[in-house]
Structures are given as structure tokens and as C-alpha cells.
Amino acid sequence: MRAVRFHGAGRPAVVEDVPSPRPGPGDVLIDVAAAGVCGTELHFLDGLLTPARAPITLGHEVAGVIAEVGDEVDDVAVGDRVAVHYLHACHRCRSCLAGDDHLCDAPLGFLAFATDGGFAEQVVVPASAAVRVPETLDLPSAATLCCSATTALHAVDVAAVRPGSTAVVYGTGGVGLALVQVLREVGARPVAVARNPHRLRLARKLGADVTVDGTGDVATAVREATGRAGADVVFDLVGTRETGAAALACLGKRGTLVYVGYSFDTVEINPLGLVVPEQRIVTSVGNRRSELVAALDLAARGRLQTTVTEHALDDGPRVLEELRAGRVVGRAVLRP
Ligand SMILES: [Zn+2]
Ligand SMILES: [Zn+2]
């Protein structure tokens, strides 16, 4: 079968033929319908994150149809339309039992990080990682929800966003556009920041109250939009030195800066600057399986829109470079 594979940092992704995977006990084999192209893939290619092995098939945002089930699988069946929770939690360890399966201590698999991902015609995952997709939701949209909207739901939970609060979404890629909508859903006032004017227009369409040009003075614009008070929450989805400094400058008293994005940069913090206004910095990584279920449900009820562009699987390497160049609006998916 065809697959888009990672061969090491600094080397381009390659389309190649690999053997089709076989489901073991407890596994399902999925015919991939669509797989989302995420900034995380670029982090692998750039060497910021290192998969457990190489070569490995990329793609951790996957939806498709179950083609075959292994032994001991009874909660899903052949023909089921499913989305995959990319970190295949054990559901038995200390973190899992505490409800934090996104921090699982002994994952059964981890798409594109440790096990072959979904930029392929088929993928094998544990049945427990397969979540049924509601009938009214198409599979390409479901694929993009596996990372963008679920990550947004988790970040809003981590930040404990309150109704009526002002929340800056710093960076409006796939996660940011979902975050704008999730913030609306919880009654907050989203302020979107981006360099790309198309993304800002889309953010406004999806519910951003204010949009701010990321090439300008972001902190001043946010102060103006909040009656000088500053934001209650800032989500930094970029994680550079520049956005880190601007994000802190946007933050109001008792405000929370949430790191979701990261880069090679380090960010300098002066404790005094945080202590006096009693601000805090928290981080949010990935998402729980339950948050994927919630995202699929929200989208099926029309409360969460996805912006999806579809591409052939063989175009994967080119689409990755389009994403790097900031030319993808919403989420691109690869379809085998
Ligand atoms: Zn992703
Ligand atoms: Zn676990």
C-alpha cells in the first residue's frame, strides 16, 4: 500500500510502498478515509520532536472505516465509521485511572510518534482507540477533529475558562480556529491573532469577537480591545520568543497564559512581572479520548465547524510544504 513516511529529521517526507498492516488480538484494521496534516508533522521533519523510530508513517489525525477486527474485539465491528484517538492509552495505569489518558504511562501505541500513522491506505490501531463517528458527520471532518478541536477542548479545560472572560487565541491554524469556536461555546469572548489575513477573516466568521494583525503591536491591540485590562486567558499556539513576550504583555491581572504551541525558542520570564499581577502560566498537551468523543458530538450537532481541503495521499510531501509556508487555511487532509 502507499504511505507517506518520515525517514529522519532534515529529510523530506517520502511517498513509498509498504506492506499492509495486519490486526493482532484487540486491534482493528481501518481503511483510511482521510488523515489531517498537522504542524506536528513539521516538528518531526525539522527535528523538534523525534519519533520513536524511523522510518515511520506520518499522520496522527485519522478517520476511516473498519475493514477487519482482530481476536477479542467486540465493541466495534467491520463497517463501523471511526475516528482514532492517536495516543492509544492503556486505560489501566495511574494517569489513565485518574482520567488523564492523554498522559498515559504505558501507551499501547502512538500514531506517527511510535507506531505507523494514517498517511496510508490502511492503519492498525487498538480497538479501544477507535471512536464511532456520528452518522451526520463526514469522515474528512472527523479526521481533523482528532487533533485540532480535541486539543482546543483540552486547552480550554486546562485553562478553566469562565463565561464572559476574554481569551486571546494567538495563532489561528487548525487548533486556533477550533479554539475560537470552543471559546464561544463556553461563553467566552475570543480575540484571534494571526499574520495571515485569510485566517483572520475565517476566525471572525467562526466567532472571534476581535481580530488582531499578528504583524503589528499585538499587546497594544489586545489592551485596547479589553478596555486596558488585558486578557483573562492567552493561548499561545505558536510558542516562539516573539509570541511568548507578546502573550505575557497581553495578559491582565490574574490572567492565565496557556502554552499549547512550542518551537526551538526559549522564552524569558521575569518572576516579578508575573507575581505582582498574580498571573500564571500553564501548559496543555494533546487531549483525552473523552474529548474526541465530545468534539465529534459538537461537530455532529453543528456547534463546531471544520474547514477542510482534500488532497491525494501522494501529494502529502507537497501539502506539508504548503503548511510550512503558512498557505493552508483550516486543515488539509490526505485521502488515499
Ligand atoms: Zn495534530
Ligand atoms: Zn495508561
Automatic annotation (TrEMBL):
Signal peptide: none annotated. Its EC number is 1.1.1.1. Pfam families: ADH_N, ADH_zinc_N. It comes from the Bacteria. Keywords: Metal-binding, Oxidoreductase, Zinc. Its cofactor is Zn(2+). InterPro entries: ADH-like_C, ADH-like_N, ADH_Zn_CS, ER, GroES-like_sf, NAD(P)-bd_dom_sf. It catalyses: a primary alcohol + NAD(+) = an aldehyde + NADH + H(+); a secondary alcohol + NAD(+) = a ketone + NADH + H(+). Residues 8-334 form the Enoyl reductase (ER) domain. SMART domains: PKS_ER (SM00829). Belongs to the zinc-containing alcohol dehydrogenase family. This is alcohol dehydrogenase. It comes from Blastococcus deserti.
